[in-house]
Amino acid sequence: MTTCVTIRNNTATPFGLHGKLHVQGTQLLDEHNNPCQLRGLSTHNLSNYPEFVNEAAITQMVDEWKINVFRLAMYSGDADGFQGYATGDDAHREFLEALIQKAAEITAKLGIYLIIDWHCLLDPDPNTYSDMAVHFFQKMCPVLKDYDHIIYEICNEPNGDTTWKDICRYADTVIPAIKAIDKDKVIVVGTPIWSQRVDEAAAAPLSYDNLIYTLHFYADTHKNELRSIMEKAIQDGLPIFVTEFGICAADGAGAINLEETNLWLRTLNRHGISYIMWNLSNKDETSAIIVSTCNKTSGFTEEDLTPTGKEFVKLMVNTL
Known about the structure:
Blueprint: H1 14-18, E1 22-24, E2 27-29, E3 39-45, H2 55-63, E4 69-75, H3 90-110, E5 113-119, H4 130-144, E6 150-153, H5 164-179, E7 187-189, H6 192-195, H7 198-203, E8 211-218, H8 224-235, E9 240-246, H9 258-271, E10 275-280, H10 307-317
Parallel strand pairs: 3-4, 3-10, 4-5, 5-6, 6-7, 7-8, 8-9, 9-10
Antiparallel strand pairs: 1-2
């Protein structure tokens, strides 16, 4: 299998410039030990919107929209009438595995980073399907271990009554399974309350190398209080990655709040925190970047973009 280090490996691409990433202190660093900030876009549910994972679309995002990271949201459980990886049959799991390998090859060719997200959400405690998470990573890590542009995200948004202790129990099951096969990749760990309570992780961080912790926000819902929690966690030594944010409300609907979005992004940029926007789909909701009446899967024009999509392009092209 061709690896990312042999494709488009030059300083004209993000991977060519930065190489394999690692975590030190509160920073995501590149192979030269320089800080590296990733900025990009997440898919919606891969089971629901697989068609957007294609080379033409991702190439446009890289060349025109200037993303340097792409996130695959692979739901672990059922959502919106679609099977998740853990709840689906063997054929569906094989379909998702093939789609992930396709994305790995495309992003390697384009020289950008790829996050593979075990997207627990409606299964609020990641321990619910921990056996299938181990199965997934044991299946995919041998395929992906030579792709140095890949990052693993092991639990998207633990929620409900799930505690940091519960998440640590899950992490202590899944992380060793990954590291036994692919020991050096960066691993992202979700935090309680839809990946907001990074303070709890800062008080009792896990003891593995190359871990970074998730904070998610939606600008019209999460404001100064959550920013303060994040900044205190950073002060306490926690490395943070915003693997999902929105510029609307937390339910993906409502109005766009650019004032709060700008406050968030200025704060993230000040700390060098990477961030990924939700979501690449044509779902009829505010957070989708493609209008619901658009049937294209690539070659998007300005008319094909929602207000969120237009703002996303501005945010990627122009750093605050």
